[in-house]
Design goal:
- The chain is built from eight helices and no strands.
- With 247 residues, it is mainly alpha-helical.
- α3 (47-65) packs parallel to α8.
- It is globular.
- The two termini are 22 Å apart.
- The model has no long low-confidence stretch (mean pLDDT 91).
Amino acid sequence: MCLLKSKYSWLAAPALWAAGVLTLVLVWGCASPEWIQTHFDQDGQSPVETATIGLFFFQMAFFWVVPPMRPGLRRTLWLTDFSLLTFFAICRELDWHKLLVTASNLPGATRGTPFKMRFITNSVNPLADRLLVLACFVIVIALCGGTLLFFLRRLLKGLFKLHPVCWSLAFFGGTILLIQLFDRAPAILRNDFGIRISESLHALTTALEEGQELLLPLFIVLATLQAHFIYNNDPADSAPLARHTGG
């Protein structure tokens, strides 16, 4: 806790990421591919995926218990926005959004998940289903994009000023990109280059994909705590962070 109130608070996110990835690599090195598959990836039923979902629920409650903003109407509006974004993440992890639309058996209809652009553009799919999927896309993109654009300028400026919250959110975003990389890498290597990776390397990509998803809510909880210390804590208790109070 002392680190989070010091001038070195910005290092908390890099340390969390490094410790998390090191732990994942060590677990992979000590476990069989079958063990990794069972404990990291079972379509939402593995221990790691269950823990990730639990942390997202904790994150949503944490916003309100340890608010990252000064009191006022804007705090309530932003906490509602952050809670909705977290709820979207939970829906994605649990596939709740897929319960809204059932794939049609019509000839030429889109197979698999309806939450893809090709489902919307395929005129064979029922119009009501396509409009529902489109509405979900619009709502999620509008909230995610609007939130990012509103804070983007101060986030970029904060990185150069070693603002702790900005560094935690930067590692949050960077980790999302790494998750997508490890998720798609085996298929890209197989389909585009004809390279089939070994079971051991596939287990490593699974561990780094699902394991880093576990870090995402931890980055947000860390950023929330750091922001609370900067904007809502007793100034005498967080003096090293005082220079960030105007950001």
